[in-house]
Design brief:
alpha+beta, 4 helices
Length: 161
């Protein structure tokens, strides 16, 4: 982040800070700008490198909400988002989880070859829903009835944020 962006996040008005997240999806610091003393180049849970911006569009990852007019104690860290709110692309940790799920689909017992293929196709569509299937609209606006024919489709899975 350049100094102008840092100054913007340090204004005394309510705002979202930036999150620092490792490539496996662990939140390292949800107050990247307000509390830089907790920033780390690598995750202390898994050793992966950390990022504070989307690799696809270079916009900051939304962190904790800060309102200088009150103090909240003990709320914990914000969860790592699955997709960039600016460009809709999946973050690296989301891609990794989807790749692992696709590998597991091959190992699941009790599925017919057709069911296994449908599961893989469903998993392949997940990272593209926010941008491609929805024309840039919000996830909750999705009304795609073909998904209801999919035996692995769960409506709550569309609510990714």
């Amino acid at each position: 982040m350049n100094q102008k962006e840092v100054d913007l996040y340090n204004e005394p008005s309510p705002r979202y800070d930036v999150a620092l997240v490792c490539l496996n999806g662990h939140i390292v610091n949800d107050r990247f700008v307000a509390s830089p003393q907790f920033n780390k180049k690598f995750c202390d849970k898994c050793g992966e490198a950390t990022i504070a911006a989307c690799p696809a569009c270079n916009k900051p990852i939304q962190g904790d909400y800060i309102d200088p007019s009150y103090t909240v104690v003990g709320m914990g860290q914000v969860p790592a988002p699955g997709f960039c709110q600016h460009c809709g692309k999946p973050f690296p940790w989301t891609d990794r989880k989807l790749a692992a799920a696709k590998e597991m689909a091959d190992e699941l017992e009790g599925l017919s070859p057709d069911e296994r293929e449908k599961l893989k196709q469903t998993l392949a569509r997940i990272p593209h829903k926010p941008v491609e299937q929805m024309g840039g609209r919000g996830v909750r606006e999705l009304e795609n009835t073909e998904l209801y024919d999919d035996p692995f489709y769960r409506p709550e899975a569309d609510r990714l944020y």
